[in-house]
Amino acid sequence: METEQKIFFGSKEENNKRRLKEALARTPHERLIFFLKLCEEMQVFAKDEPHPNDAKNNFIIE
Question: 37-62 pLDDT, tens per residue?
Fold first, then answer.
């Protein structure tokens, strides 16, 4: 499922249509694997320090 990275130039609407077309072309199994890989890649941005509002017991939407 490895694909080479490509850069696309287009309007927001054009890119949204392209991404939707690419997503619908995947099988359900490929969609799940893509989602899991995306979640794993997002862990790079996770912080080890707690959010400042955690101590205040505020409701936080992330």
Answer: 999 988 888 778 877 767 777 676 76
Torsion of CA 25, 31, 37, 42, to 10 degrees: 90
DSSP track, the chain: -----------HHHHHHHHHHHHHHS-HHHHHHHHHHHHHHHGGG--SSPPGGGGGT-----
Calpha distance 58→61 (Å, rounded)? 10
Residues 6+ apart with CB under 8 A from 15: 8
What is the per-residue pLDDT for 2?
58
